[in-house]
Amino acid sequence: MREILRLSLILALVGIISAALLTAAYNVTEPIIIERRAADYRQALENFFPGFASFETEQVEEGQFDLIYDDTDDLMGIMATVAVLGYDGDITYNLAFDDSGEIIGINIVSHTETPGIGDVIERGSFQEQFEGKSHEDPITAGEDVEIVTGATVSTVAMINSIRQTADFVAQSFLGIEVEEIDFAEVPDGTYQGSAQGFIGPIVVEVEVSGGEVIDIEVIEHEETATYFVESYPLIPERIIEEQNLDIDTQTGATGSAEGIVNAVENALLKALGEDVDEPVEEEPVDIDLSEVPDGTYEGSAEGFMGPIVVEVEVADGEIVSIEVLEHEDTPEYFRESNPLIPDRIIDEQDFDVDTETGATVSAEGILKAVLNALSGALDNGGGGDEN
Amino acid sequence: MEPKNIYLQDLTRGLVKENPVFVALLGMCPLLGVTGFLFYGFGMGVATTAVAFGGTLMVSLFRNLIPSQVRIPIFIVIIATLVTVVEMSLEAFQPELHEALGVFVPLIVCNCLILGRLEAFSSKKPVLRSAADGIGAGLGFTLALVILAFVREVLGHGSLLGPNPDTVIQLFGPNFEPMTIFAQPAGAFIALGLLLALFNMFTKRFNI
User: Fold this and answer.
1) CA atoms of A152 and A226, how far apart (whole Å)
2) What total of structural domains would you count in chain A?
3) Can the peptide bond before residue A339 be classed as cis, meaning omega within 30 degrees of 0?
4) Are the beta carbons of B77 and A21 separated by less than 8 Å?
5) Of A211, A218, A209, which is closest to residue A237 (Cα–Cα)?
6) Inter-chain CB proximity A18 and B81 less than 8 Å
7) Which residue in A12, A136, A242, A369 could disulfide with A310, CB within 3.0 to 4.6 Å?
8) Chain A residues whose beta carbon lies within 8 Å of the beta carbon of residue B85
9) How far is A118 from chain B (nearest CA, A)?
10) Residue A210's domain is classified under what CATH number?
11) pLDDT for A153-189, tens place per residue?
12) Does A280 reside within a domain?
């Protein structure tokens, strides 16, 4: 018993000495640490809000928001410090807004994304596309901002988080009402709507009854099936459960999830009699190759990162060669679709070819460019290019 | 043997002959975690050496007062205290390094290299010899970190003294495509394996 007491006392003594040492070290270093952090942050603020005089911090669930004032106490803007789950741990970043809710710039505070892949979020070319955007812009991958191929998870996470933060700032600090659909105002009925998914348009049918969305069904989509299951039926279930479109769309197929949400939104907006911007339903193009006069035709269509321009040579009612003249897609991925897709079209002499490759969007782009070239040839009354 | 040589022996033993990494394979976790850049590897080495030195010094000073039944918890408390002091100092004076090393600084507590030296050496030997031994083990660890970090930074980033843009030296010009694998954890394993093989080859050949 005495022995145990002796050992305990010695351990307690060691603990007390340790605590005393740590307290001393803490007292020496803490003021320096706090001062340095404040200086770092002021530096970041100075970059976005030159000449600011003071700021006021508001800590909420969404993150930390600093209201920045100039020397006459006018609001200059807002600095948000937000964390979002990236591919590998939290990405913490600052988002600077001016007093109308427009994004001035982004500053990545810390992240643990894969070096050489996910760290593209630090690059200017990724960050600059958000500048000047606000809660009024869609800030949606594939619409007004682009993801970075190969780092889809990191960049989509950033895009979604930036959109939510922009909406939040506008609503909570600038007193701007962000338009939201009130489900209760939608008359009972079944409505169709469409929106761009990750690869092609997604068409949904939404059933509304008693002011609530009771059923959502995807009627058409072109997404890759193995990814699409990650978002469907999960996303419709979430919308029905929460009776709100402001749901978490981060799934294994976030692009598709966003597409579904936007399609539902469009369906409801149409039900309320508002104009919506839907992807044009593409008529299945049927070109009779035998009607296309011999010649070489150029056509273009949107690929993954930019336009794809192709040159199609037709002889004796058959496509004899397809060459991609220009494209802006990532070469490593584009290889998966070129020359595979041109070869398939030439082999089958038909446009109903399988476009599911390692770069499906590029593949679709090539196919559409070829179709555009040939329909152009027909529209010009067979004029075509003489060379 | 002359006493002067004993200290030197204690100091140098950890460098090559009983190198904590290349021979004893201790402290692998920070070794693989922080060696992406030379600067980080070196910083980690210095932090570990400081803790090893302080720990061996304290333990050998009080070795006759520490009851053997509770020596391990006491060792751990001593190490943890030193590590926390080191961490706070890093955050105050080397914020960039502190940020980069992240969780690996607090993890120095469970680096078996330090506990191993305390248990095997400092708890039995006089103060000066223990201190020399602690510094030696720390320097041996630093040496391994620096070599591995050098290989990884050159191959994985094509640079030296990065990632700070003020000091970084790009070695191979703008068209160099770095072997990103070496910047990632998997590449750390590969590089470490190759280094171990080289080390064994040399020690066998020259009979060190």
Assistant:
1) 16
2) 4
3) yes
4) no
5) A218
6) yes
7) A369
8) 21-22, 25
9) 12
10) 3.90.1010.20
11) 888 889 888 988 888 888 888 777 666 677 778 888 8
12) no
